[in-house]
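Appendix B, Record 12. Input sequence as logged:
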Amino acid sequence: MAKRRHDEIRRAVRENYGKVAQEGTTSCCCSPSSCCGKPGEAPLTDISLGLGYSSKDFADVPDGSNLVLGCGNPQTIASLQPGETVLDLGSGGGFDCFLAARSVGDKGQVIGIDMTPEMITRSRENAEQGGFLNVDFRLGELENLPVADGIVDVVISNCVINLSLEKERVFQEAFRVLKPGGRLAISDIVSTAELPDDMRNDLALHVGCIAGASSIQEHESMLLRTGFENIRITPKAESKMFIQDWMPGSKVEDYVLSATIEAVKPRSSQGS
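Logged structural output:
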């Protein structure tokens, strides 16, 4: 039964992202029907500024790459440096990858992983359109990354890990591919109160980045067991303002918040 439910959620997420990629419509979070584009609501640029992006960020990337804006800008905590290798978990249309490519420069590399073939096709087209030669988009799952051991300086992700039912496995894979001293810089949804059963079992809320959220304490425990150190998880109270628009009337903002998640792989570590 658990495996059937797992497969059902994974299939729903893949179908949702595939639809976003095919239609080329922008989603502010994980649900294409939620917080963007309704008449009378805040324009997309205003919403993106509230997530930590700038007008320059949008000017520097190809049109059509900002398909899923997520719940925050992970690069505000990533401290990317020229020449670094960056891995984006759940890269979507390539938006965060292209911003990272700008930061690491020609001597750096950015790898984007997405499980949706339509998103990979769209992101590769965007890379060609924008002339990004240091970005490589790969089809794969976060629980089994198609990336070699110990080659990544920084792992980033924007509102995607909550979608996985095997979060600790995702963190183990991130740990594996990071170099000793490598950094984890994530923006994601965390639960701040126990979700009611009807919410936790709602497939639409799984796809919408709500029902799969784990608590801060659960994240800390998973990261510690994986081997990370210098763990810092910072919930953003102001995120209630945009989360309440994801599922209007459901009061999801009473149960979840956006948070930044930071951790470091010990320099003495030689593997996972």
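The mean pLDDT is 83.
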